Amino acid sequence: MDLICVEQKDAIATVVFNRPDMRNAISLAMWQEIARVTEAVGKDPGVRAVVYRGAGVEAFASGADISEFKAVRKDTATAQAYGRETEAAYLAIRQCPKPTVAMIYGFCMGGGMALAMSCDLRFAAEGARFGIPAGRLGIIYAAVSIRQLVDLVGPSYAKDILFSARTLEAQEALAIGFINRLLPAQELEAYTYDYLKKVAENAPLSVHGSKVIIEAILEDGAVGQRERIRQLTLEAFENQDYKEGTRAFLEKRPPRFEGR
Fold first, then answer.
1. How far is it, in rounded angstroms, from Cα 197 to Cα 144?
2. Of 69, 104, 152, 177, which has the highest C-beta tally within 10 A?
3. 8 A C-beta contact, residue 60 and residue 104
């Protein structure tokens, strides 16, 4: 059985954490595979958006597989090696050039919450539960993951979540800005794919450019990538999608973007 499955329908790829008997707990091999498949779908010209989800509806991911820790996270050296693999997975998702959505049913805990934070958007089903139990495990999260949390919910709520290691109900996660949408469980999947279908119909270069600029603003106010951003905005006027978008608008028809 593949522990990470990739499915594609039309222009939307779905990455599935496929371990439902373990509430989709993420093993070391799964962390490695998440990075690999994310890089692959990011390079696939046929993919315009990516969904991450857990198999079934009991959990998005209940966190890292703690049962492995005695072997793969037993001391400083192995902990550092393990950390490099988890960071590679988070970084691959954050740097994916396509829009990414975490579709969350049930438990979204620890490393699962960090995976969801790495996505551009988070849509959840009613009854979903969130938390980072690092304080009960003696773990300190890396700065890059904590920064993602701070960017989403602000420093005060980030401290609350990390200090208390408590579980948040879905309504609170929505109220503090961790999730973008909260829907009845039976509506979540259809809503997610309908939303991304609309995103996929937009100009890929425009969507990608917006993602690059937003990430640059969060990084350092876009100072470090000022020249890259200038080039992106200027190049947009030379690509075929710009010509198609303006032509379609004037002709009062839906545009047909090709990402070039």
1. 30
2. 104
3. yes
> How confident is residue 256, by pLDDT bands cut at 50, 70 and 90?
confident
28 to each of 14, 233, 242, 249, how far by Cα in Å? 20, 40, 43, 49
What is the pTM assigned to this prediction?
0.93
Two tokens at 212? 């690059």
Task: Tell me how far apart the alpha carbons of residues 150 and 260 are, in angstroms, rounded to a whole number.
Answer: 35
Tracing tokens 């608008």 back to the chain, one arrives at 249
Q: Which residues pair with 183 in a beta bridge?
A: 125
Encode pLDDT of 183-213 as tens digits.
999 999 999 999 999 999 988 888 988 999 9
CA 52/CA 119 separation, integer angstroms? 8
Residue 111, class by beta-carbon neighbours within 10 Å (0-12 exposed, 13-18 middle, 19+ buried)?
buried
- Distance CA(170)–CA(228), nearest Å, equals 38
**Alpha carbon distance 23, 214 (integer Å):** 33
Query: Has residue 1 got a pLDDT over 80?
Result: no
217-251 pLDDT tens trace: 988 887 888 888 888 788 777 787 777 777 777 77
Residues in CB range of 237: below 8 A, 6 or more apart:
none
What are the phi and psi torsion angles at 200 (to 5°)? -65, -25
Angle of the 111-118 helix axis to the 76-94 helix axis, nearest 10:
30
